[in-house]
Specification:
The protein has 318 residues and is of the alpha/beta class. The protein is built from 11 helices and 12 strands. Bound molecules: ligand PBG. The site of ligand PBG has 11 residues, from helix 6.
């Protein structure tokens, strides 16, 4: 490349039209998935502290929200459930009349074209709040696999288009793949033990009663280990690899993108969203600009699919 003054990179930055012509990364609504939270009852929209715009919704309200999302052009949603009761096993996760199962049937009937992805995990359903079977303070890996597979099957039987296991047990992709050979599987492959899930745990009521998730979620310090997680999940039959959280892990997204040719997803988690909302509420930054910049960065790092609480607002902005 010739040096200045032959080369002047500012030439292509002079107008909106020029900047747009040479833009390398664009946001398209088709790549975004909106997380939704189903809760028992009727006519309930319970907003969540810190997650402005996000609420627990009873099934009827969830259907209404899905209709609004659909009319804005949103193509896919990720479903979580807050059950009426929790128990030691987390049996609400695979119950035929469980909260996610009921939400799936209602959404499926009303909006056949909407892509319904479900989060497959036990933590919203267990009284202790861990993602698997707990014995003597230890999460039991192999015993949990069957329960996750049952949960995934019950989601698909209720109308899910794709399942996304987020528990981080070893072998869970294989366990689900064995019983669901045809179902798209988005694996939370590189899921870190992150402080940025804080607001989610408020809305999902899933904070562990004792201990934390570091015995199964990944150490934030590791990237090579993330590639091993991804390799194993692909070998076990995952279709899409997800990195989570997104913003503090852009290097991991990039590494996964470069190593594997499957679609890569990233989860722009609750804490990432809450930080911007809180700062914007105090006038420290402009929410729309900060959100668009964050989401662009996640795409630029290499994500094909982005799970984000901004999806609905993004639909209005684009
Ligand atoms: C369930 C699950 C969590 C999130 C997605 N699925 C919470 C956790 O692992 O503690 C977090 C999502 C977010 O923070 O937005 N295991």
């Amino acid at each position: 490349m010739s040096a200045f003054p032959v080369t002047r990179l500012r030439r292509l930055r002079r107008t909106d039209a020029l900047r747009s012509l040479v833009r390398e990364t664009r946001l398209e609504l088709d790549d975004f998935v909106m997380p939704l939270f189903a809760c028992p009852g009727e006519g309930i929209v319970r907003p969540v502290d810190g997650l402005d715009g996000i609420a627990q919704r009873s099934v009827d309200e969830l259907v209404r929200e899905a209709g609004e999302l659909g009319s804005l052009g949103v193509k896919a949603v990720l479903l979580f459930g807050i059950p009426e009761e929790k128990d030691d096993e987390g049996s609400g996760a695979w119950a035929d009349d469980g909260i996610v199962q009921r939400a799936l049937r209602a959404l499926r009937a009303e909006y056949p074209g909407l892509v319904l992805v479900t989060d497959v995990c036990l933590c919203e359903y267990t009284a202790h709040g861990h993602c698997g079977v707990l014995r003597d303070g230890e999460v039991q890996n192999d015993e949990t696999l069957d329960l996750l597979a049952r949960t995934a099957v019950s989601h698909v039987e209720s109308g899910a288009d794709a399942v996304a296991p987020s528990d981080m047990m070893d072998g869970r992709v294989a366990a689900i793949r064995e019983v669901l050979p045809e179902t798209p599987l988005i694996s939370y492959a590189a899921k870190y033990a992150s402080a940025f899930y804080g607001p989610f745990r408020e809305v999902a009521e899933s904070t562990p009663a004792e201990g934390d998730r570091r015995g199964y979620q990944m150490d934030p310090a590791n990237v090579r280990e993330a590639l091993r997680e991804c390799e194993l999940d692909l070998a076990e039959g995952a279709d899409v690899l997800m990195v989570k959280p997104a913003l503090p892990y852009l290097d991991v997204i990039r590494a996964v993108r470069e190593r594997f040719d499957c679609p890569v997803a990233a989860y722009n988690v609750s804490g990432e969203y809450a930080m911007v909302k809180a700062a914007a509420a105090r006038g420290y930054l402009d929410e729309q600009q900060a959100a668009l910049e964050s989401l662009t960065a996640i795409k630029r790092a290499g994500a094909d699919i982005v799970f984000s609480y901004w999806t609905k607002e993004l639909a209005r902005w684009l």
